Amino acid sequence: MGKFVQTVLSGAAQLEREMIVERVKNKIATSKEQGLWMGGTLPLGYDVKDKELIINEKEAKTVKHIFERYMELKSMAALARELNSQGYRTKARFDIFKKATVRRIITNPIYVGKIRHYEKQYEGKHEAIIEEEKWKKAQELIRNQPYRKAKYEEALLKGIIKCKSCNANMTLMYAKKENKRYRYYVCNNHLRGKGCESINRTVIAGEVEKEVMKRAEHLYKNWQEKAEEWKNLSFRKQKEAMKKLIKGVTVKEDGIVVSSESGEIFIPMGLKKESKQMHSSRTRGENK
Ligand SMILES: [Zn+2]
């Protein structure tokens, strides 16, 4: 086939594809204007029957609980953690809640009986789960959250820090108390609501990171290829060196075990307990 013919043909095919997409889009828009559910990820709290959403009582309870607790905790990340530790799971694939999952729920107008189509909203045929007043208050709360610059705070020990009791990896999490942010490493088993025996399933990140960096500095001094003094290295270089030198960090009850090529070393630490808020929510979860 000549190149010109080929181009024209593929152009025609492209146009046809676009027209089909457009037709489908219009059909969906029309159906949504009529308040019908046109597919996509089914929201927590509803099931679908003949293109209409019907309330799933058990899930609707969870949705109400989520709105309730969000107004109290005022933090989606903290709420996600609380939900997970209390055994709540999402609708899709029975997954754990993430901050984004909670956000999608709280900002979804479906819960006040509306159907969203891009920026437009239509009155749905379905029953609301949340009273309009309460929903509006939640949206207000989101808007009024103190502005936080989305800066990249990395998990320095990601992939190397483990919970001694479970041998599971630990994940960096944030908590907010009196407008101060705290960073924690949390045992993944605990995070998934599987239960972890360790009293240090939640440890303040800064303290552990500080000890590990100190250990890295020590190892670096004995490192033959070292060219420069540790203190003259940029933080980025120090991090790189740490990742090369430290093979693993295991969080025990009374300290951490740091392993490197030169063996394991135990660093005793009086690891601080988690914040009161996290603790109280967890206790409630266990009583359930
Ligand atoms: Zn654990």
Automatic annotation (TrEMBL):
Q: Which residues cross the membrane?
A: none
Q: Which InterPro entries match?
A: DNA_bind_recomb_sf, DNA_bind_recombinase_dom, Resolv_N, SSR_resolvase, Zn_ribbon_recom_dom
* Residue span(s) of domain Recombinase: 43-149
Q: Write the record's keywords in alphabetical order, separated by commas.
A: DNA recombination, DNA-binding
Its Gene Ontology molecular function terms?
DNA binding; DNA strand exchange activity
Domain named Resolvase/invertase-type recombinase catalytic: residues: 1-35
Q: What is this protein called?
A: Recombinase
Q: Which gene encodes it?
A: TV41_05770
